[in-house]
């Protein structure tokens, strides 16, 4: 990844592992990247990260699916955000890998539904490496192990460029999901890799490497790994739309 004059020269999308990032900062970075992709100054990115305790409400979400009000959630250390992705209410927090692909669907040669299914396939293949079989349900977007959701999907597409993405429960504190009606679904549960595998649950480093690899395989693209510590500084500001 290099700059040539005012133009960022990259062969293809870039992968970043960002560690823990506050939700507002991650959202601002997604929007900055989306603008750069729209302006033709960035090829797109796959951001993998975790959030501190965060509750998000999608554009069709209902406030009654918060079982604790925002003040009580704040007392527990969680922030609440209403956002533009699809879906209802969900939780992000430590022990969960969140993925935000910011990419052109035109470049991927995919429609929205096929893109969502492909994201789910990436995660299916990842957790299958540890013997977990999960099923995709397009009506309640996510991956399910029996009656329990192990990964949630919620995307937004603006002028053909994706934001938001997926959340995989690795060793998440599942009690947080008792503060909401996850995805607005009653009589459904939530699980995690650690809940299923116990001490055999993989480390984040193993999982992020596997997500990177499976994303390349499923989408048929090469994603360059970047060690850039401040992604925002590597994204062109000129030509933003």
The total strand number stands at: 14
Distance separating the two termini? 22 Å
Low-pLDDT runs of 5+ residues are 1-10
The run of helices and strands is EEEHEEHEEEHHEEEEEHHE
Question: What's the pLDDT, averaged over the residues?
Answer: 87
* Helix/sheet category: alpha/beta
Shape: globular
Which band does the percent of strand residues land in? 25-35%
- What is the share of helical residues? 25-40%
Number of helices: 6
Based on CA atoms alone, the radius of gyration comes out at 17 Å
Structural summary, described in words:
A hairpin with a 2-residue loop joins strand 1 and strand 2. The protein is built from six helices and 14 strands. The N terminus is likely disordered.
Give structural attributes.
nine-stranded mixed beta sheet, globular, three-stranded mixed beta sheet, disordered N terminus, single chain, 241 residues, 14 strands, alpha/beta, 6 helices
Topology:
Layout: E1 2-4, E2 7-9, E3 14-20, H1 23-38, E4 45-50, E5 54-57, H2 70-75, E6 79-82, E7 89-92, E8 96-102, H3 105-108, H4 112-128, E9 135-137, E10 142-145, E11 148-158, E12 161-169, E13 189-190, H5 193-197, H6 204-219, E14 224-225
Parallel strand pairs: 3-4, 3-14, 5-6, 11-13
Antiparallel strand pairs: 1-2, 4-8, 5-7, 8-12, 9-10, 10-11, 11-12
Helix pairs in contact: 4-6
